[in-house]
Amino acid sequence: MTDLARHYIAGQWRDDGGSPAASTNPADGTTIGHFAPGSAALVDEAAQAARAAFFDTAWAASPRLRAQAMFEIADRLDAAKDEIAALVVAENGKLRAEAMGETMAGVSEMRYYAGLARTVRGTMQEIAPGVLSLFAREAAGVAGIIVPWNAPVTLLVRSLAPALAAGCTCVIKPAAQTPLVHARIMACIADAPSLPAGVVNSVNENGIEVGQAMVASPDIDVISFTGSSATGKKIMEGASRTLKRVGLELGGKAPAVIFADADLDRAATELTHGSLNMAGQICVAAARFVVHESVAQAFEDRMVAAYRAVRVGPGADPSSQMGSLIDLPNQQRLMRLIEQAGDEGHMVLKGAPLDTGAFLTPTLFRIDDLRSPLVQTELFGPIVTLETFSTEAEAIAKANATVFGLAASVFTADGARALRASRAIRAGTVWINSHLRLFAEAETGGFGQSGMGRLHGPEGLADFLETKHVYLEPGAIQGGA
Ligand code: NAD
Prior knowledge:
By secondary structure, this protein is an alpha/beta fold. 36% of the residues lie in helices and 21% in strands. The strands form 5 sheets. Strands 14-15-16-13-12-17-18 form a 7-stranded mixed beta sheet, sandwiched between helices. Helix 1 (40-56) packs across helix 7 (209-216) and helix 2 (63-79) packs antiparallel against helix 5. The mean pLDDT is 96. The chain binds nicotinamide-adenine-dinucleotide (NAD). Residues 146-150, 155, 175-176, 205, 208, 211-212, 215, 226-228, 231, 234-235, 249-252, 283, 378, 380, 406, 444, 446, 451 line the site of nicotinamide-adenine-dinucleotide (NAD).
């Protein structure tokens, strides 16, 4: 590799000219490096390379080869973890602990699916005596993987690892904000000796042209997309032209429901982390506190104290407890929203920028109007609402009152109520007396406009597999070589 973050197609690093684009550190505005911009033509080449690798190499039909290559990739990611995490801090602005957490989660996920690669099994049914129906699980073909900037390691590996385990070949595209992290990950992938050329191809993005070309490509069979619900809708629409399968992991607006009997200190600790992790720029961040009216003031007092105490600063500074936003335009977007929203709810704590960098301290609104955009839209930053309820039914109705359904949490000392509420809330993940616990082993995904399909866990393979029925009657096979 050179200092320029390049594309990787058919086993070759590529830079097809064009002015290099800059990658910026959001904590101080400095340029960290440059990347080669992508194009629709490069997507075509990458998709054809992936298609050739799917049909012409042993990849799709060799589970042990796939497991071997994936373990090699995991080992290389593990060995490069300090460098990768440092790049995540520099490009994304998150804390070093968060960056290392997501890097190691990526290593863990790659190893988890490397194991699963050897257990992709079909089934058999004897339809009538001696009449066999074999149901094979086969790789779906070429997978296009489009990821956002907010967790550039984990979210890439969360789609890439099950795609590879299933036997797909891939075209992947990072977000324009995190090309250097991506290039470092690609260097680990390119270095895996057992990986056939063309199995993993990568094209950088400097706008939306590359993503759109992937969605339109006739050579890509499946799109695995993680990003906003608005973009997810465009992707689904675009994919309909070639009837691609789509897996969509989209936006969220996670409610945390706090019942009167909850341990408020525990809830405050969990939800400070649950709402401010990655400066609130995480799809499953606690974004709405839905609190029983009898404990609302006591909980609010705890949250205000906790938010005030949070040290906001550069992710590279070990004393920081919350890092920066992804860039200055997002800081300005959120500051405008705070100013404009002043009359929609009672602002309990008002967020403010720091002198330099894309920082914003936490904001807390008390709000009763469920129709408010503060409640209904994903803000993707350290801005949280506090709403109240009086009955369990009202709590559930409020928790379910947005178009999203990605994650939620329930805080109560009553085990039966915890289970009842967790089943009644329409979300892909519900945490009890905790918030924000993610594992390679446990499926994630959305109800409603938070997406379709599941990633992580055994079900994460499903987006990348087709089922084939092979029928065999007695006597239908005669002779032999
Ligand atoms: P985004 O939707 O703007 O972009 C995501 C990716 O899509 C980027 O790589 C971008 O370049 C690409 N893209 C944008 N427009 C496209 C188009 N028309 N066609 C094809 N590709 C296109 O999202 P973002 O701002 O980068 O990320 C934040 C969003 O991602 C939030 O809404 C967040 O909730 C969501 N997210 C969801 C999950 C999940 O697991 N459900 C995880 C992380 C982030």
